[in-house]
Give the backbone structure.
Amino acid sequence: MLEPYPLPVGHVYQPRPVSIDRDIQIAKLTASGIDPGVHGDRLDLTFLGLPILDALTERDVPLQGQVHVYQRFIQHAPIMLDGELNMRGEITAIEKVAKGEVVRWAFDFTDRTGRHLVTIDRAGLRPQARTAEDGGKNGGRGGATDFLAPPEEDQPGFEILWQRTLVPDDVARYSSDGRNKIHSEPEIARQFGFRAPIAAGLIGVHYYLEAMAGYGATDKLDLEIWFKRPMFWDETLTLRRHVDGSRLTAMRIENQAGKPASLARINPSPDV
């Protein structure tokens, strides 16, 4: 049986300084198959997920087996690499779902003057571990959509932007910090009902922000992402986009079977 999450709704994480090193951005984008120059001297917002993961493990709270199901970025101003930020976050919801428990957090980032730069809303599914009694049926991510309502999967008007094949060694190298070995250890992945390690959800976020950079849409943005299915570390992925006039409005990453691994919606930018 899944133990309840050890922290309550309303728990506030200790505010902390944050700085993302340029070399980390270059290394992880390269492991994702992305040209690091796509963002220039600007921070890829995906990397703000790393200090969030550090905060989530405070008080020895385990991330093992947790599956990323939702993330939203609301950015009010560009963030430059190597800059100094401050981060504050709290747990905003915990809810039981068919396959376990979903926990939701909100984190705010400000600069040294206190100017609000970005809010990140994140949710993770803590699935029931596979047991002999349930025959492994409790693995996977079913039930997460009971908590968060994603867009419809079969929307018309999407066109292919690219196809890429994930490389197991690169996927494992991306998550070499060991925070969640479901991304790098086959046995751990099998314990939670997956046939192989799954790529970190943050890799999918990199792909969406890479595409948005091509539209010059990364200084101010409102991007929502629903993680629907795992991206296995050896799959060929397809990124499709939906454009309304000159505005990028939606994207999706499809797995090898043609099913959405994730769905993204680009809302009108804040302060516009």
Notes: Strands lie at 12-18, 67-75, 85-97, 100-110, 116-127, 159-165, 221-227, 236-244, 247-254, 260-267. The first strand starts at residue 12 and ends at 18. The domain at 12-139+155-267 is CATH 3.10.129.10 (Thiol Ester Dehydrase; Chain A). The helical segments are 22-31, 49-56, 168-174, 186-191, 201-213.
